[in-house]
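Weekly sync, protein design subgroup
Attendees: M.S., D.O., the rotation student, P.L. (late)

Item 1: inverse folding check
M.S. brought a backbone from last month's batch and wanted to see whether the design step gives back something sensible before we order anything. D.O. pointed out we never logged the input encoding, so this time it goes straight into the notes. Structure tokens as presented (336 positions):
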């Protein structure tokens, strides 16, 4: 049978391996070290979803967190200081919200300090949107863009070794149906506060169902169309938001967005607006959580903490009714 995953290809890399999510892909990358898993050290940014480390925690992987610059690229001065006393096995470089940036500088860093480089492209729709990849490992999260529950794709320059034989999961019919009758699983909580993830789980040792892989593979023929809609939706949201002076875009507008963030002037403004959005049932979100490992050292990462406390994220999905959405946003702003 024809391998439908071959629509996901990157020149110079092995054929992609499918996982249920990027967290499992990250776990399997960490197992490629010559060290035992509980002695493996990964360097990653503090501005990271703590729940994505759930499998690594369970296996005892160690973390060292670095700071980011205002434009969400790595703070290499901070990293070089950390490297004076630490020798990580892996360096995680993240392309936030779909913007591909600074990976060449991270490649040089990794080569100079004997680290394997991981490019986190969970917010990038597909490898075809960029022609130049440099990581030793690269992973994407198709489930964030396409109508599937499970879907993480891992690319490696060299063949990966696995401890377990992965089996395909059952297609989640009820989830698939429910997705079309709900709006991104919007939670009605009005709590606007930093969350810390202590989550530690055993991996599933399974791949997405064959149907989900097929959906993700076939969906790439619509990438240009999807990208155009996402950019249009982002522009419409920004147009409405720009009438309110107390916030600015978190990132520039040159990339296809995963979600679109507006950074408020202060915590109180973000909290006030978020509660109004929730009251009017207008779907927005806060950055999900931070890794619990650094909860006692928050003072070291105040820029990241403040970024989360002040940023409201809007959805730009191609199935969005953008006219209805922008009217809700406008209503919140006009009634501020």
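Designed sequence read out in the meeting:
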């Amino acid at each position: 049978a024809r391998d439908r995953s071959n629509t996901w290809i990157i020149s110079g890399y092995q054929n992609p391996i499918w996982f249920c999510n990027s967290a499992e892909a990250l776990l399997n990358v960490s197992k490629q070290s010559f060290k035992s898993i509980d002695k493996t050290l990964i360097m990653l940014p503090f501005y990271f979803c703590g729940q994505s480390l759930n499998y690594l925690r369970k296996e005892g992987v160690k973390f060292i967190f670095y700071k980011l610059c205002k434009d969400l690229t790595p703070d290499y001065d901070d990293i070089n200081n950390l490297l004076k006393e630490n020798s990580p096995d892996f360096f995680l470089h993240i392309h936030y919200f779909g913007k591909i940036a600074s990976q060449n500088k991270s490649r040089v860093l990794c080569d100079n300090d004997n680290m394997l480089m991981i490019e986190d492209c969970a917010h990038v729709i597909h490898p075809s949107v960029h022609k130049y990849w440099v990581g030793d490992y690269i992973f994407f999260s198709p489930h964030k863009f396409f109508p599937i529950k499970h879907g993480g794709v891992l690319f490696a320059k060299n063949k990966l070794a696995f401890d377990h034989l992965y089996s395909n999961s059952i297609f989640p019919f009820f989830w698939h149906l429910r997705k079309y009758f709900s709006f991104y699983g919007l939670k009605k909580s009005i709590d606007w506060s930093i969350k810390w993830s202590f989550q530690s789980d055993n991996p599933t040792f399974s791949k997405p169902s064959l149907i989900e892989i097929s959906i993700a593979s076939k969906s790439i023929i619509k990438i240009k169309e999807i990208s155009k809609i996402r950019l249009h939706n982002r522009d419409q949201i920004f147009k409405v938001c720009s009438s309110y002076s107390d916030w600015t875009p978190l990132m520039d507008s040159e990339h296809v967005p995963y979600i679109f963030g507006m950074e408020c002037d202060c915590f109180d403004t973000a909290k006030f607006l978020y509660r109004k959005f929730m009251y009017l049932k207008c779907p927005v979100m806060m950055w999900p959580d931070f890794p619990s490992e650094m909860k006692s050292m928050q003072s070291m990462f105040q820029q990241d903490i403040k970024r989360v406390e002040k940023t409201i994220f809007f959805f730009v999905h191609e199935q969005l009714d953008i006219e209805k959405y922008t009217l809700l946003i406008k209503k919140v702003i006009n009634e501020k």
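Discussion: Residues 161 and 308 are 37 Å apart (CA to CA). The first helix runs from residue 22 to 30.
Action: P.L. to compare against the previous round before Friday.
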